[in-house]
Prior knowledge:
This protein is of the alpha/beta class. The chain has twelve helices and nine strands. It has helices at residues 10-16, 34-50, 98-109, 123-133, 150-160, 175-182, 200-211, 219-223, 238-248, 253-260, 264-277, 288-298, and strands at 2-5, 21-23, 28-31, 89-94, 114-120, 137-141, 165-170, 189-193, 215-217. The strands form two sheets. Strands 5-4-6-7-8-9 form a six-stranded parallel beta sheet, with helices on both faces. A three-stranded antiparallel beta sheet has the order 1-3-2, with no helix packed on it. Helix 7 links the parallel strand 8 (189-193) and strand 9. It is globular, with a radius of gyration of 19 Å. The model is unreliable at 1-79 (pLDDT under 50).
Amino acid sequence: MAALHAGHNQALLDTVRLPHVRISADGVAIYATREDLEKNYLGPKRRRACLPSTGSNSRRNPPGKPARAPLTLKLNGYCGRIREGQDMVNVMIVEDEGLFRDMLKISLGAVPNMEVVGAVADGNAAIDAANRYNPDVILMDIELGSDPNGISAGRCIKNEHPDMGIVILSSHRERQYLGLISSEESSGWSYLLKQSVSDAGALARAIEGAASGLVVMDPTVVNSMKPRKGSLTAGLTPRQQEVLTMMAQGYNNAAIAEKLVLGTKSVENYINAIYQELNLSHNGPLHPRVQAVLSYIRDSV
């Protein structure tokens, strides 16, 4: 058996809610061993999804089994790695707490089109492993127990692999952490609260968005942000602001249309109007959709 004090990482206990986790009277979370967990709770299919990839494609599409459906978020023209028809996003996990690291593997194993190709425990190992595993996205805790932290390690990795996506996991929603990402003026970053790992939709949007070269924010963080008075974002109409907040959460145009009960063409018109109001251009180094989200972060309180 393995144990972890609940106060050390309450997000871990709040997000997974699996039957092998219980809280003892003294506030200690008790877990079955990794082997028992995989044998008793995951089953063969999900066990495979939680194990590092060997680099072979045979495990992804066994003989006689159809390939998985393409990703729901395909955004050609962005600076990320996801391309039309790609049916899998390869993810590397960076988390210093071993039990939480294993549970992230489990959570990702439940998300279609996601495959964990490796997992390491600190920032320096992440920088080395990025070259070895060459993932599409790195899911990285912001606090790794030692330097470099998640954002610093992510910057080093992005310097070597500009199209590699980074998803920062954090227990914090303070502005200082958001500013560390937006000040980079770089695409392919997502910021997700640990409590949102249990939300398969938010987790998938963050990972797919980062892989596609977008900037995606946690829904809870986005919903707590308001445009600063006098900013360009504050000058948008209420509907335009609503569309922009959904863009910031990683929704594509079709999903925005479905959520807001609009036609896809109407959503495109709103987005083009947002670009015009925020003075965003298609000629810059960043796609205007990325620029719009960065502007939203900068202009919000």
